[in-house]
Design brief:
This protein is α/β, with parallel strands linked by helices and 320 residues long. 37% of the residues lie in helices and 15% in strands. The strands form two sheets. It has an eight-stranded parallel β-barrel with strand order 1-2-3-4-5-6-8-9, surrounded by six helices. Strands 7-11-10 form a three-stranded antiparallel β-sheet. It comes from Gordonia alkaliphila.
Length: 320
C-alpha cells in the first residue's frame, strides 16, 4: 500500500460528494497537494465511469511516470445493483484509495487489496467503526456531527479519541471542519487526514449547479437542518433548498422514507433537487478554484501551528 500521507502537501481529503465531485475536482485537488475523491454513482452509466477514470489517471500523471494520489467512493449498500461493475473498473484503473459507504467494506476488500490499494470505511458511530476495523480495513473515515449530506452525531474530537483507543490505522475525520485551523486541531487530536466537503461545494470545479453554489455562498449555519426525512438516513440539508421545493423543514422529521442508494431514479432526483451542506457553510464566501481554496487552507494550517509556540515554555515546568 502506498504511503499516501507523505505524498500530500496538506492533510486534507476533498470528500466524495454525490452529484458534486467529478474528474475536474479530483484532478485539481491532486494537483494542489490534497487527496481528491468522487463517488462512482456520480456517473450515470458504467461507460461514463470508465471515461472519468481515464480522465483522472491521465490528469494526475506526472512527468516521471507516477500518478498523484486519488480516491473513489463505492456505495456497498445492498440496493446498489451496480457495485460489481463499478468494482471491476476500480480494479482496472487502481485508485490508491477506495472509500466504502453505507454498507460493509467486505465486498470490495479482496479486489482492492489485490492491486495494493487501501480500503477506507465511512463510519458514523463507534459500532460501525469497530465492525469495519474487525473486517480488516486500512482506514476509517469518521463522519461526525456537522458533516454535510449524510452526517454523524458525535463530536469530531470525541470520535477521534474513542476510535484511537482500538484502531491504529489511517484515521480520517470529517464534520464541520471548514478551515486550516480546524485541520491542524484535528491532526493534533489524532487524525491523519481531514474530510472537507462543504469547503469545495462552491469551487469552480464543482459539478454543483450555479444556484446551488450561490446558495452555499449566501448561507450560514442557521440555514441548515438535519433530518432523515429525505433519504431515510440523517442528512444535513439547506433549508432554503427544501422550502423552494415545497417542503416544510419544520415537519420533515415526521417523514421516514425507505433507504435507497441505487445509482439512479428517485434517489438521484432527491439529491439533485434538494441541496446539502455541512456546518462549515458559513466559511464559504466566494466561488473559487480548488487550488486557491487549498492555498488558503495551507496558510491557515501554518498559522495554527504557530499558535502552539508560546505553550512550549511549559515543557519541564511543574505543570507539564
Amino acid at each position: 500500500m502506498r504511503d499516501i500521507l507523505n505524498e500530500l502537501s496538506l492533510p486534507v481529503m476533498a470528500a466524495p460528494m454525490f452529484l458534486v465531485s467529478g474528474p475536474e475536482m479530483v484532478i485539481a485537488a491532486g494537483r494542489a497537494g490534497i487527496l481528491g475523491a468522487f463517488p462512482t454513482q456520480n456517473c450515470r452509466t458504467v461507460e461514463d465511469l470508465e471515461q472519468w477514470l481515464i480522465a483522472i489517471t491521465e490528469g494526475l500523471a506526472t512527468a516521471d511516470g507516477r500518478t498523484l494520489p486519488w480516491a473513489v467512493n463505492l456505495v456497498t449498500h445492498r440496493t446498489n445493483a451496480r457495485l460489481a461493475e463499478d468494482l471491476a473498473l476500480v480494479a482496472k484503473y487502481q485508485p490508491p484509495v477506495v472509500v466504502t459507504a453505507l454498507g460493509s467494506p467486505k465486498p470490495v476488500m479482496e479486489a482492492v487489496h489485490a492491486y495494493g490499494g487501501a480500503v477506507i470505511a465511512d463510519v458514523a458511530d463507534l459500532k460501525m467503526a469497530r465492525k469495519a476495523a474487525e473486517a480488516g480495513v486500512d482506514g476509517l473515515a469518521c463522519i461526525s456531527a456537522g458533516a454535510g449530506g449524510h452526517t454523524g452525531m458525535l463530536s469530531p474530537f470525541a470520535f477521534t479519541a474513542a476510535v484511537r483507543e482500538f484502531f491504529d490505522g489511517l484515521l480520517i475525520i470529517g464534520g464541520g471542519i471548514s478551515d486550516g485551523y480546524g485541520v491542524a486541531g484535528a491532526v493534533a487530536a489524532g487524525a491523519d487526514l481531514v474530510y472537507m466537503g462543504t469547503s469545495f461545494l462552491a469551487s469552480e470545479e464543482s459539478l454543483a449547479v450555479a444556484d446551488y453554489k450561490r446558495m452555499v455562498v449566501d448561507s450560514d449555519i442557521e440555514d441548515l437542518i438535519v433530518s432523515a426525512g429525505i433519504t431515510g438516513t440523517p442528512a444535513s440539508w439547506l433549508r432554503p433548498s427544501l422550502i423552494a421545493h415545497g417542503i416544510d423543514p419544520d415537519t420533515l422529521n415526521s417523514v421516514q422514507p425507505d433507504r435507497n442508494y441505487q445509482a439512479g431514479g428517485d434517489a438521484v432526483r432527491r439529491w439533485k433537487d434538494l441541496w446539502a451542506a455541512g456546518q462549515g457553510v458559513g466559511s464559504v464566501t466566494a466561488i473559487a478554484p480548488v487550488g486557491d481554496i487549498v492555498d488558503q487552507l495551507a496558510e491557515q494550517y501554518q498559522q495554527a501551528a504557530t499558535r502552539l509556540t508560546p505553550y512550549r515554555s511549559l515543557e519541564g515546568s511543574a505543570h507539564a
